[in-house]
Amino acid sequence: MQSPVINELIDAFKLLPTIGPKSAQRLAYFLLQNHQQDGHRLASAIEAALEKVGYCQQCRNLSEAEVCGVCASKSRQADQLCIVEMPTDVVAIEQSGIYRGQYFVLMGHLSPIDGVGPDELGLPILRDRLAQGEIQELILATNPTVEGEATAHYIQQMAIEFNISVTRLAQGIPLGGELEYIDSGTLGQAFAGRKAV
Amino acid sequence: MQSPVINELIDAFKLLPTIGPKSAQRLAYFLLQNHQQDGHRLASAIEAALEKVGYCQQCRNLSEAEVCGVCASKSRQADQLCIVEMPTDVVAIEQSGIYRGQYFVLMGHLSPIDGVGPDELGLPILRDRLAQGEIQELILATNPTVEGEATAHYIQQMAIEFNISVTRLAQGIPLGGELEYIDSGTLGQAFAGRKAV
Ligand SMILES: [Zn+2]
Ligand SMILES: [Zn+2]
Known about the structure:
Oligomer: homodimer
Largest interface: A-B, 55 and 54 residues
CATH topology of the largest domain in chain A: Dna Topoisomerase Vi A Subunit, Chain: A, domain 2
Structural class of chain A: alpha/beta
Number of domains of chain A: 2
Bound molecules: zinc ion
Number of helices of chain A: 8
């Protein structure tokens, strides 16, 4: 008996993570009942972000510009490169405030079964960057999962070719945990206690 | 250091109930990182719903049509009218399946301090409807809060003028609770055990 457009709005909210049927209904009615302006603002913000946000040509992080703010910054160390799986990992590490080097964002991890190989993770771009000789330390901050470890191992082999020292975030990250959800203090410890591999 | 359009997207998500800063960030990155199509679908669904959904001329519930499905239905009892505060209350009662009459949606409750009086709640429309003589029973299903009770009392006085019997949902609704969050079984009990006031 509910209107089809309301049902479609509820279904669309259900596509989001952590939003179940009951929450989706609540969000849809919230916008329709008395927060129409918030609804327009959210719809516009989504479309603007999807249209304007692309990928940094240098680090593959999400960026409005061709080269992102971190890559373009002169105040960051140019000889340290931290490898992460996702843009949200960069956000988490930046929030910890402990790291002042550069990033490279894989946008995933090696997963042959899903057709994700070195090319999909931009590893040829990473190889070119390592070949330039500016990077002195590669910090492997992929997730401590089977796929994350395999990806880190692959990149480590690449760094060895170029005689670049490789470290891996170690202390404080719980086994099987996801970087994105780890608090700043723990992340700080993991950075401070990083070990040569 | 985050892009302004990403920040605006996070801010827009934060406007939604139960979505805090951390959830908002997660939702924004979810759409940007790998669910662009879901993002377009959600933005379109919001705009379509805001554009097409208005109010039923008869019951004031949200509706795409001038008269909503419940008001237009010939299979529903025409002599019972259930008064609720919000469209989500109609959804909750419909899901309980116990009620087959008509609704009137106040879109709020009396709240002089916020400038919400009888006109804002559509009570002149309700009065006209009661005056037509078809309604035999008015079921007051406003929330069991101070404002909800005051609103129910006001409407009860109106019904007395027209010699219409008035009942109030009673058993099973916890004090201070909100109708929208009550499970179907409890709502069913409240309907079955309604008492004359
Ligand atoms: Zn960059
Ligand atoms: Zn209606």
